[in-house]
Amino acid sequence: MNTTAHDATISPDAGFAELTATAGRPALQLEYRWLNRDRQDAPIALFLHEGLGSIAMWKDWPQTLCDRLGMRGLVYSRPGYGRSTPRPHDVKWPVDFMAYQAHDVLPAFLDALHIDAAERARMWLIGHSDGGSIALLYAGAFPDALRGAAVIAPHVFVEDVTVESIAEAKVLYESTDLRARLARYHADVDSAFYGWNDIWLDPAFRNWTITDALAAIRCPLIEIQAEDDHYGTMAQIETIAHRVPHSRLCKLAHGGHSPHRDAPETLTDEISRFVASVERGGARSPG
Description:
With about 290 residues, this protein is of the alpha/beta class. Helix content is about 40%, strand content about 15%. GO terms for molecular function: hydrolase activity.
């Protein structure tokens, strides 16, 4: 059963953002949650989840990072995930689905929450996996609407190891208890899983890349990946470092594809040090 804004029990710091329909997008409800909302003068850290993520799947790490940074946090579930509007089962995501999220859905979500230009200019994006790719695309498209970004295990092109791991995930979803475990985090678990899995396994997606979009990024940026990530190699963040020379490359010895879960203290330390260096003037955007 799909959860809607009318039957959900939510706290005062959580809710559903209503995105009205446009010529290229249906009306959407996006679940969101504020962290440290009482810090009205603090910058916002906005969290963008992975390809099978949601608000709930971040668990406590966004709160930990925001407390460390002294920021407000804003976490939301993209369409198709969590309790946000599910993907209709007869709709397949296009190859450029991440650009659509970065260029259309995320700005509309910020508009719906009345986050103005001044607040956006102080905002940090914290993106993981597909969410990291969306953060990079947003940073390139809106270079003056962001203070900085931290991207964790992002994808900028398609690698064989990624496709192989995603194909393995499909086998596990259809033959083990993975579906039941993911169902705790999504109102429509099949919408969430197959929306992500089908497009990544589509042969047309093998040529997807966002490398040309990276050169437009002007804000401070740190790209982070673990050596034991089974969804991507260091070529991902090395490509970012080459295309965005002012960024900071950070390689973790351990942490898998989800260091916020498997190496949270190390990840929090790395991002916190980077943000502090930016605020001290030690890491500036070019020009």
